[in-house]
Amino acid sequence: MTSLFVQEIRLSKRHEEIVSQRLMLLQQMKNKLGDQNTEKASQLQAAETAFKRNLSLLKDIEAAEKSLETRIHPIPQPEVVSLETRYWASVEEHIPKWEQFLLGRAPYPIDAENQNEAEKSIQNEAQ
């Protein structure tokens, strides 16, 4: 009988140890879960902060790009725009004459009046 009583006491102590260890493990799990949630919240906050910072940097870069663009390619003056428009209109007007010459189907496209002026300017340059 004593041996059964001793065994029961030993099993009871072992049971208390196991229950105590279980409580300790449950507390550790609870702490770890709390730490993970805290870390996750911290990471989420860091991600939001990084997103806002990146958005701000992107806006700054776009503003700098726009500023540099206006410095590199300033808006042309109206006189320049007008001159450019007239130039391209003249080019389009003379394309048919030059096209045939460039394709080898027609002579050099200078009419007699322009040819005389060209010859005079060449002669003036030679003198």
UniProtKB/TrEMBL annotation:
Protein name: Centrosomal protein 15
Native source organism of the sequence: Prolemur simus
InterPro entries (alphabetical): CEP15-like
